Amino acid sequence: METRTATTTADFETAATLQVSFNTEYDYPAPPAEELALHLGRLVEGCDTTVMLIGDPTTGEAFGHGITRFRLQTTADELEAYLAELYVVPSRRGQGLGTILLQAIIDEAKARGATYMDLGTSEDDTSARALYEKFGFDNHEGRGSGARALYYEKEL
Fold first, then answer.
1. Per DSSP, what are the bridge partners of residue 148?
2. pLDDT tens across 48-103, in order?
């Protein structure tokens, strides 16, 4: 398996198709893959987003993707990364692809100068939680020493 950063229209189309599959699997709304591919290209062009793919380098088939958004911290002149999406197709889960992909995403974030990464997942997604915890992600304020951190959302 190999990871690569998406840079081409074909890469963004692949990532968009994977994202639509993710959204469909978890009953989330999703835009048409064609629109999402264009949107991902614009995000990457804006230099605040990275799209990473994992797949078979001999066939070019992708089995997963990750989308990371970057922002400057509010109280320090440091870059932080938000792992917006991480997905591996169901038929390839349990084979270590999530581990390889997440390591590549973390390595890329560090290479860009990020000193902090955050993400959100659901409580019932025990596989994702286990992966993130294996990498040292914590859901407590103060990075392990405080109260349990909660994620809130609201449509505007």
1. 140
2. 999 999 999 999 899 999 999 999 999 999 999 999 999 999 999 999 999 999 99
The CATH code of the domain that includes 82 is 3.40.630.30
Question: Looking at the domain assignment, is residue 136 inside a domain?
Answer: no
Q: What are phi and psi of 59, to 5 degrees?
A: -100, -20
Q: Are strands 49-55 and 62-72 parallel, antiparallel or unpaired?
A: antiparallel
Count each helix (H run) and each strand (E run) in the chain, helices first.
4, 5
Tokens 């048409």 correspond to what residue? 32
Q: Please indicate, yes or no, if residue 152 is contained in any of the structural domains.
A: no
| Count of domains for the chain | 1
- Sequential DSSP letters for 50-78: EEEEEE-TTT--EEEEEEEEEEE-SSSS-
In the chain, the DSSP E strands lie at: 2-5, 49-55, 62-72, 79-88, 114-119
- pLDDT, tens only, 123-137: 888 999 999 999 999
Range of the domain at 88: 2-120
Instruction: Tell me if 142 is assigned to some domain.
Output: no
Do 92 and 49 form a contact (C-beta atoms < 8 A)?
no
